[in-house]
UniProtKB/TrEMBL annotation:
Its main location: membrane. It is found in: Cell outer membrane. Belongs to the TonB-dependent receptor family. GO terms for cellular component: cell outer membrane. The keyword Metal-binding does not apply. This is TonB-dependent receptor plug domain-containing protein. It comes from Spirosoma arboris. Residues 1-25 form the signal peptide. It holds the Pfam family Plug. It is a multi-pass membrane protein. GO terms for biological process: siderophore transmembrane transport.
Length: 827
């Protein structure tokens, strides 16, 4: 059975191979405490990860972004199906606003969908981000995010803004976190320009006397490192020289007189990672110890105690005991404070290979391509996987190169780091023989902060404010109009009117503070929601808010660097061909409209049936009007004495009702109350304003049988004015009522790809042939390979003589990601 999202973190205590006087944990008090509290923290704050595969990275206004979301367990990377709503936002990073938003239904961890780019959106560079409601318990730095370029009809990017500063950001980061007097340390550095793009730098380090200590130069994407032995009382400054000859000064972190330095060697030995720990501290306690804690995505891997009597120690950690991906090593001093930290990457080659094999080497225009897809593990054995595949015209859809983000690089690297990782797939391409050296350098310079150690050690676990959504939600609060607490529970009635006119009713209460929530709802497309509150004898003193009317905040201020570059001729052709295709689509729609307008249909006028009424003619009915509702408090007050055989006992909110003849051996049987087609209890009915009611129907005896055994006491059917089939709920809201239109799950459209092996009846000759120069030729978001690791798909080439770039991404149910690429030539 597949483990659930709330998979409990296992504690793994493994033997340590020591090169010095380092001892395996013998259950000292602090070690036991940190293990227990870390485990408790992660059990109560599990994580999810999201990845979104799009058909391409650049679009013209008016096009559609075809996409598929992958939702995974943040600890095990298994395909996750607990959260069932995936939010996808198109964020304008300049204005820090969400311009477009859609909600995708997630099934078994997969969420296909699309995002249409309307004419109202400005051209520019945007962030496409994906997340679940549960992920909002963490900083949005851990949402999935990728750069999307939207071009105007003239090829401009009017929505972007230039950075206001030109000074590069150059950071100097001692390995482990600090420089300590007299202990040789490595210092990593990273340089980015004002747009957030890496830039090469070189320079030298000066001491307080302006003497040169050491030179340095970046080796990869503005990153590099040098070694320094800090001296007593010295301060150090880096003089950085840019490519244009400019020289800038940056201070190095201050030197600590006492401390601990941790250095990691994750490259020289095939099987083990070496951890070097050195310090210059003195302790009166001869038994004082340092504690090394290693964890991967919330899984405790090693806990080691190190005697402080040794000034220098080396610990070897078997690499095969770690899961694949990023691990965090934290060193605690003798006072149990975290003093040094380092990230490392563990490669175990636990990925799938995706093979894309076409039936021919070259194709003609409008020829069918049969594609065979295979998925295998590292040992070459077949394995089933769920994939998405895009086939695009390589000339019209430029790609940076093979170093862009993929599901592989996101899952194993970017999703566990804060900040932008430039060229993330560089570190997973075997063609780059230096990739392990460069990923080690990256992890010396990139941040990681899913939790704060002070919270873990104090047992302070931040609350989970955003629940897991197993369906759509309606949450909010009921207060007084002056925003003060209402003082006690409020009875709520929810009415959801869907696009197809079907209706759902819900009833419930707020908590004592006025908070409410309706969960696990299921509706598609735009739905009208009415929420009515009742407390006491009047609704006028209620103000209802709905969280879903508020978009999440955008805290990112960095304008994403846009690495896409069109050649001038490619850009012109992309715009021309895309506009041609859009015009063809518009013409098809116009032709359809003209044909429809020319058709004359003769038939009897259809009167829409009221979906709230499943019965025929009622036995009795009372129409509510100004005369009979005046001065009446409840619905029963209005019908009292109006219908023969219906007896109302009492008045106001203490009233009850009985239909004559409705009794059994136990005595009178109460009638079934139905509000706009939905069964309700008497107290909910009494809370409805008489001004909102259109009429009340009464069914007796055999007439009530259509409602089954529940209606043995008869039926009293209340039909409201706003619930009618021809009434727009948004036209008027009664006091204590909120009415809003909300998007449900986005309907999933099927990607249209023409078939040229089937001739349409209306096509009589070559003149009927429409030009086909689509940028995206094929998009298949839900390809499932079988137990033999195989699947087949087919599509047709267009009119362009070009290369068709294929890219498939996906994951196994157990959490192994993979990427496959191929090129199909059209001559």
């Amino acid at each position: 059975m597949r483990r659930s999202f709330f998979h409990r973190v296992r504690l793994i205590l493994l033997c340590i191979v020591s090169l010095s006087a380092v001892h395996f944990i013998d259950d000292p008090e602090f070690s036991k405490q940190v293990i227990e509290r870390f485990r408790a923290y992660n059990q109560q704050r599990p994580t999810e990860k999201v990845y979104i595969h799009t058909d391409r990275d650049a679009y013209l206004i008016g096009e559609t972004i075809w996409l598929k979301g992958y939702l995974m367990n943040g600890t095990t990377h298994e395909a996750d199906s607990v959260s069932r709503v995936l939010y996808v936002d198109l964020v304008d990073p300049v204005a820090r606003r969400i311009r477009l938003r859609t909600q995708l239904r997630t099934t078994a961890g997969y969420a296909p969908g699309q995002l249409f780019l309307p004419d109202s959106i400005a051209a520019g560079t945007y962030q496409l981000r994906g997340y679940t409601n549960f992920m909002r318990n963490y900083p949005d730095a851990y949402f999935f995010s990728k750069t999307i370029t939207i071009l105007g009809s003239d090829g401009t990017l009017t929505g972007t803004a230039n950075a206001t500063t030109t000074r590069p950001d150059v950071q100097f980061l001692p390995e482990g976190g600090q420089l300590v007097e007299g202990i040789e340390s490595r210092v990593a550095f990273k340089a980015v320009n004002a747009s957030g793009q890496s830039m090469p730098v070189e320079g030298f380090v000066l001491n307080a006397k302006k003497d040169t200590v050491i030179g340095f130069a970046s080796t990869h994407l503005g990153m590099g490192y040098f070694t320094i032995n800090p001296e007593l009382g010295q301060t150090y400054t880096a003089s950085v020289r840019l490519r244009d000859g400019t020289t800038l000064s940056y201070p190095l972190p201050a030197v600590q007189t006492q401390g601990v330095v941790m250095q990691i060697d994750n490259l020289s030995h095939k099987d083990n990672m070496k951890v070097y720990v050195r310090h210059n501290k003195t302790s009166a306690d001869a038994t004082a110890k340092l504690t090394l804690f290693a964890q991967t995505r919330g899984q405790i891997i090693h806990v080691v105690t190190i005697p402080m009597a040794k000034k220098s120690s080396v610990i070897q950690l078997p690499r095969n005991t770690f899961p694949e991906g990023i691990s965090q090593l934290t060193l605690f001093d003798e006072t149990h404070k975290p003093v040094s930290e380092r990230l490392v990457f563990i490669n175990k080659n636990e990925q799938i290979s995706i093979g894309l094999t076409s039936d021919k080497k070259t194709y003609k225009n409008r020829e069918k391509v049969d594609l065979t897809i295979t998925t295998t593990n590292a040992q070459g054995k077949p394995i089933a996987a769920n994939l998405s595949l895009a086939a695009v015209d390589a000339r019209l859809a430029p790609e940076v190169d093979s170093t862009g983000a993929t599901i592989l690089s996101h899952l194993l690297l970017s999703s566990d780091l804060t900040g932008t990782v430039e060229q993330p797939n560089y570190y997973f391409d075997p063609a780059h023989t230096d990739r392990w050296l460069q990923i080690d350098l990256l992890l010396m310079t990139q941040g990681w902060r899913r939790f704060v150690w002070t919270d873990v050690l104090a047992g302070t676990i931040p609350p989970i404010n955003q629940p897991v959504e197993r369906g759509l939600s309606l949450t909010g609060r009921v207060v007084r109009p002056n925003q003060k607490d209402i003082g006690g529970k409020v009875k709520l009635t929810f009415l959801l009117v869907k696009r197809d006119s079907t209706r759902d009713f819900l009833i419930g209460d707020t908590d004592e503070l006025g908070n409410y929530g309706a969960y696990d709802l299921d509706f598609t497309d735009t739905t009208t929601v009415m929420i009515q509150g009742t407390k006491g004898k009047a609704n006028r003193t209620l103000a209802i808010s709905l969280d879903q009317l508020l978009l999440p905040t955008v805290t990112s201020t960095q304008v994403p660097y846009n690495p896409l570059e069109f050649r001038r001729d490619e850009l012109a052709e992309f715009i021309r061909r895309t506009k041609e295709y859009q015009e063809i689509e518009r013409q098809i729609r116009r032709n359809g409209e003209v044909l429809l307008q020319a058709v004359t249909v003769k038939a009897k006028k259809y009167e829409e049936r009221d979906s709230r009424v499943i019965y025929g003619t009622p036995d009795a009915s009372v129409k509510f009007n100004q005369q009979n509702t005046s001065g009446r408090l409840t619905i029963l007050d209005v019908i009292q004495g109006q219908i023969a055989g219906v007896q109302v006992i009492g008045n106001g909110f203490n009233a009850r009702v009985q239909i004559r003849g409705a009794a059994n051996f136990n005595g009178p049987v109460s009638p079934l109350f139905v509000l706009d087609g939905m069964p309700m209890d008497l107290q909910s009915i009494l809370g409805i304003s008489v001004q909102d009611v259109d009429r009340v129907d009464v069914l007796k005896g055999a007439s009530a049988a259509i409602y089954g055994s529940r209606a043995s006491g008869g039926v009293i059917s209340i039909l409201t004015k706003r619930g009618g089939p021809n009434n727009d709920l948004a036209l008027a809201a009664a006091p204590g009522t909120l009415i809003a239109k909300l998007p449900g799950y986005a309907p999933v459209r099927e990607f249209y790809a023409p078939r040229y092996d089937v001739r349409k009846p209306e096509q009589t000759g070559p003149s009927d042939r429409r030009p086909d120069y689509r940028t995206t030729l094929f998009w298949a978001p839900m390809i499932q390979t079988d137990v033999e690791g195989k699947a087949t798909v087919s599509f047709f080439t267009s009119d362009a003589k070009t290369d068709i770039r294929l890219r498939a991404e996906g994951i196994t149910i157990g959490g192994m990601p993979g990427v496959g690429r191929a090129v199909v030539k059209v001559e």
